[in-house]
Write a structure and sequence with these properties.
With about 350 residues, the protein is α/β, with parallel strands linked by helices. It has a single domain, classed as TIM Barrel (Alpha-Beta Barrel). It has eleven helices and ten strands. An eight-stranded parallel beta sheet has the order 7-6-5-2-1-10-9-8. Helix 7 crosses helix 8.
């Protein structure tokens, strides 16, 4: 039976309430939970997260939806070109309220830095100007020191559309690691999640296992605290074999993109697919919870369907374009509600 808390969470997600006004800079209010406080409060050893598009969106109700699911991590994609509008001139106006509100609600925040800027501007391509890249990530980490728990450096670099060689990626990763740690030493650095497909499908320029081997051969393991893994459901949902990525791995693993796509454009035929989506995500959590190396699982995604419904990635969303909940939202929330102790329990 769907509980009152789930119905309340749905109502909060669909209600355009709360302030999203931009402040001049992120300030720590009386209700804000600092990183030190979050660490002192002994967060659970296993993290439950979801990718949420928060910039320019109704931040408060979206985060209330995350809290209603009893999730404690928010993953926020961040494109460099959206932040640096001119050389050395950064626009923090959309990110400030996101960081402020995530902290005020005591949630953990992972920012995913990707894209590029300047003369080499492209949709998803890797930064070619390392000096400018270092300046940007230094400014970013310095502004949000103590408020952003982790940074993921790039995403799917082995995809043909985003292609950057493992050696070049390690250069990018090392530069980001050193810059961020200098400005925010406590922040964790997460390696890019890799597209989990073989080259035969035409999407990957190199398989995830081969690419990770290249990263390690280039010394990349020295430049991340956490190994990021991208896990997407295919076929009948049995493709949960990420064990090859754990070979000789000495770092914790975060599954930073775990998802199953159901077309938004064919809702009348989406029922079976949406049930498969829910079953896949529940099973992914159940398997990950039993793997000692895995610390966090993040579902991809919460609400891209309401932001850019034409984007193919919107088909992975937990809510539909009309803000109604898919079965995966309800079942994940129910799973977590059964795991979280009641106040009198």
């Amino acid at each position: 039976m769907t509980s009152i808390v789930l119905l309340l969470a749905l109502w909060l997600v669909q209600t355009w309430g709360g302030s999203t006004n931009v402040g001049s800079s992120p300030s720590r209010s009386a209700g804000t939970t600092s990183l030190e406080q979050k660490m002192d409060s002994s967060p659970p050893p296993f993290g439950y997260g979801v990718t949420v598009q928060l910039q320019g969106q109704p931040v408060t109700p979206l985060l209330n939806g995350v809290i209603g699911m009893h999730f404690n991590w928010v993953r926020q994609p961040l494109r460099w070109q959206d932040m640096e509008l001119a050389a050395g001139q950064y626009d923090w106006s959309r990110l400030d309220p996101v960081v402020e509100e995530v902290n005020a609600k005591g949630l953990h925040l992972l920012l995913v830095i990707h894209g590029t800027a300047g003369a080499e501007l492209s949709r998803n391509g890797p930064p070619a100007e390392l000096d400018a890249w270092v300046n940007f990530v230094t400014a970013l980490a310095g502004r949000y020191a103590g408020r952003v728990d982790a940074y993921q450096i790039y995403q799917d670099p082995n995809l043909s559309a985003n292609w950057v060689s493992p050696q070049a990626y390690v250069q990018l990763l090392q530069a980001a690691y050193q810059a961020i740690k200098s400005a925010s030493p406590e922040a964790k650095i997460v390696s890019a999640g890799l597209y989990p497909g073989a080259t035969e499908d035409g999407l990957a320029a190199m398989s995830d296992v081969e690419y990770l081997a290249g990263i390690r051969q280039a010394g990349g393991a020295n430049w991340y605290d956490v190994l990021g893994v991208h896990l997407v459901g295919v076929g009948n949902g049995d493709d949960l074999d990420y064990h090859a990525l754990q070979q000789d791995n000495e770092s914790p693993i975060w599954l930073t993109q775990v998802g199953w796509a159901c077309p938004l454009a064919a809702q009348e035929a989406a029922g079976e697919c949406e049930e498969q989506q829910a079953a896949f995500l529940i099973r992914a959590f159940e398997m990950a919870e039993k793997a000692p190396a895995i610390q966090v699982v993040m579902v991809d995604n919460f609400n891209l369907s309401t932001v850019t419904p034409s984007d193919p990635a919107a088909d992975f969303s937990l809510i539909r374009a009309d803000w109604s909940a898919r079965p995966a939202f309800l079942q994940l929330a129910q799973m977590r509600q059964e795991q979280v102790p009641t106040p009198d329990g």
